[in-house]
Design brief:
The chain is an alpha/beta fold. Helix content is 31%, strand content 18%. It has a four-stranded parallel beta sheet with strand order 2-1-3-4, sandwiched between helices.
Length: 105
């Protein structure tokens, strides 16, 4: 499965821009979060991380929304077979579509 994740920011159009870019990638399902403070937990992201399995791909626009979660789950992601695609930074491991993709390694 290819999952997308978007998180609202103070710029109300930013969420729409994220969703458009993620949809354009061709995801199967999108999880989205409302505006949250740094002290709050990203409930939708937490739910999504529990669903991810080997071979799944998580597509996000920028690392800024999930970098803390990735750090928290780095041991789980390492060698998990879960791919993370960061569209804005064009970070991918395994050189899919000429870009690097990150899967915790």
């Amino acid at each position: 499965m290819i999952y997308g994740y978007a998180q609202a920011t103070e710029d109300s159009q930013a969420l729409d821009n994220q969703l458009d870019a993620i949809r354009e990638y061709g995801v199967d399902e999108i999880y989205q979060e409302g505006l949250i403070s740094p002290a709050q937990n990203s409930q939708e992201l937490y739910t999504l991380f529990k669903r991810l399995r080997a071979g799944d791909t998580l597509v996000i626009l920028t690392l800024e929304f999930i970098e803390f979660t990735i750090a928290q789950h780095s041991d789980t992601l390492k060698n998990s077979g879960i791919n993370i695609v960061v569209l804005q930074q064009e970070i991918h491991k395994n050189k899919i579509e000429g870009k690097e993709k990150y899967n915790g390694e």
